[in-house]
Each structure stands twice: as C-alpha cells, then as structure tokens.
Amino acid sequence: MSRADGAASAAREVRCWLEQLLGAAPQIGDALPDDFAARAEAYAALLLHANQRLNLTRVTEPYEVARLHILDAVAAIGLVDETGAQAAVDLGSGGGVPGIPLAIARPEVRWLLVDSVGKKVAVLQEFIDELGLANVSVISERAETLGQSSEHRERYDLVAARACAALPVLAELALPLLSVGGTLIAWKGPLADEDAELRRGRAAAALLGAGEVRVLPASEPVLGGHTFVMATKERPTPAGYPRRPGEPGRRPLD
Questions:
Q1: Do the beta carbons of residue 232 and residue 181 sit within 8 Å?
Q2: pLDDT tens digits, 216-234
Q3: The whole model's pTM is what?
C-alpha cells in the first residue's frame, strides 16, 4: 500500500469515528453542512499524507484525529456563529486546525491561516487548492508583524487560536488584529479563575482593548475538559502593541 493509499484508508476511519462523535453531539452535528463529514475525510487524508513528510501533527490515530482535531475545531461552531464574523484569522494554524474545519463548516466566512513556518504554509496552500476552499487564504508571517501592518491591523472580526500560546502572549498577538467589536476565541485545556494564566491573560487583554474575558466549557465530555476563552475587543489597541517579533513571548504582559 502506498503512503497516499494508507492516508486515504486512515481518513475513511476518521470519517467513521467523526460521524459517531457528531451523532452523539447533535448540537454540533446539526449545525454542520450535510457534506461536512465527507469533506472532513478529504482534509484528513491530505493532513495525514502530508504529515509523512512534514511534522504537522503528533495526532495521527484515526479516532484521535476525529476527536482532537475535527470535533474539537467545530465544537466552537456555535461561538463562531455568535460572533457574526465575516473575516477571521486562524493564528498559528500549523496543519490547518481549527481554521480548515471551520472554513468547511462555514464557507461564507473568509479565513486567513497564519503560520510563521514557510514549509507549513506551502502545505496549507496545497490543502486549500485540493479542497477547493475559495474562502481561505494563507500567509507565512509572524503575528507581531501582521499586527503592525496597515493591511491587517484591526481588520478582522474573529481570531481563532488553538495550541498557539499562553493567554498573556496570545492576547498581544491576537487583539491588534481585531477590529473593535471583534472576538478572540482561544482553545484551552481546563482553566479555573484562580489559574495564573487566566489572571494574567485578563490583565493583558484589558490593556490591549478587550472587555470581559469569558471561560466557557466545551460542550462535549469526550473533549476531556477543554475550554474556550473568549474576549471581545471594546477599544482600539494602543499603538505600541504588538511589540517586535519574539518580545511578547520573552516578556509576557501581566
């Protein structure tokens, strides 16, 4: 069996698991297009095949791909709909999660996938072309640079970020990209009010123009206690942020 055939076979298993997971989660499954599972299978095949030559994901077992990549991405579909976003950014897209599953689910939303690694961006462009995702584009750039660019600063309704950075760092990378009224959705593990990451993230978000920072549990227990952190931008971000590339990570705001 060729590598492509092996990836296609594994992707069929991904689809079977995904259909079972969505069947047990009708509040998610009923919000998705009828062809979602088929298109998610096509994406999974591309991801698993490309992962054989480029390290895009450590999650390769079909059930875990269905659960931790695709279901985890679209578990936020109600929150995405709540924002009413027309233009969105997937920050630190990596292998295309959550941006590509969400773009398949909501073709009316324009997505920009952002990753600083050129090889990953080239593969993401292949995925976009193969899947015919007319609503998705991709760029190889540092978030700090984008946030100071007139083309991208305060131009987006939604920033989605999964496994991207700790909240104080993510706030500085994401909020400059949002227009006033736009929303950051961050995929996180279990978080409690007393956690230092959340406390520092709230302080950083307030400095950068956000209002209340909410922590919402993912609706499905199968996701293992994952949470969504949401922050809506209420004021323009001060001109000095984001700081130069690398600085947010070296000296996080708090």
A1: yes
A2: 998 788 898 899 999 999 9
A3: 0.96
